[in-house]
Amino acid sequence: MPPQGNAVLQYHANQIPASIPLIARAIMKRAVPAELPEKAIEITGFRFDQSKLEKYNAFCGFASGSLPLSYLFVATQPVQLMLLIQRDVPVKPLGMIHLGVSFELLQPLSLEQEYDFTLKVGDQQETIKGLEFELIGEFYLAGQCVARYVSRCLLKLDGPRKRGRPTREPKIAYDWKAIGQIALEEADARRYASISGDYNPIHLHRLTAKPFGFDAPIAHGMYLVAKMLASVNEPLTQASFQFQRPVLMPCTGTIERDGEGLRLANEAGKALVAAKIS
């Protein structure tokens, strides 16, 4: 359940702003990174936009009419920005590092159905790298959660840090088999931005990526997730992804699978994105 009282912001779906004004506010926001307060946004009357979804499916390689797990995140990105630009949330959204995302489908979703959507701040842990925190998105129908995602992010903190280290899962030996290839150019990132609404400048051009410390734009993590899911080409109810390293464009990679294991690897065989699916 989300926090109670003043920590919960309530809106109807038709009150969600467009992505570009939210991105502009995110760029302008100033904040000293610190632990996030208990905060949530509740959206009533949320419906997946079928026209936007079809453009997303066509570009990412999904079948027409499908509702991929990755789209749960993409469709609610404006709500994520709505939360992060709040004055009492000590986050500079463009300074966040996306560590990973997981999905769970509890019941089939319909494009014809209206849902209640809740986004809330989840677990937080200070590590040697900074503050790791979760944003939890949940879709409800008649008071029952039917789908959720958990997005894991990192904030770099000023000053001394705790000596704890991020939790690492045990390594599993996989017998990888190639199931797909990707080749990304800067133009692909700009096209994905126009479809997904994610206009973070770090992805768009080498000149806009430079102020963030990169000599080239980096691929949208959620575009990589979409390409990996599309390559599987089978119904899934659970999937989790970990972003291992930034993917600078232009780039090529191989999507590989072994059972529930899935990864995107570079030409040197190193994992760019690691995943588990079922």
From TrEMBL:
InterPro entries listed in its UniProt record: Fatty_acid_synthase, HotDog_dom_sf, MaoC-like_dom
GO cellular component terms attached to this protein's record: fatty acid synthase complex
Example of a GO biological process term: fatty acid biosynthetic process
A Pfam family reported for this protein in Swiss-Prot or TrEMBL: MaoC_dehydratas
Domain MaoC-like: residue ranges: 181-254
Domain of life: Bacteria
GO function term, MF aspect, one: fatty acid synthase activity
Protein name in the entry: MaoC like domain-containing protein
Species, as recorded: Ferrimonas sediminum
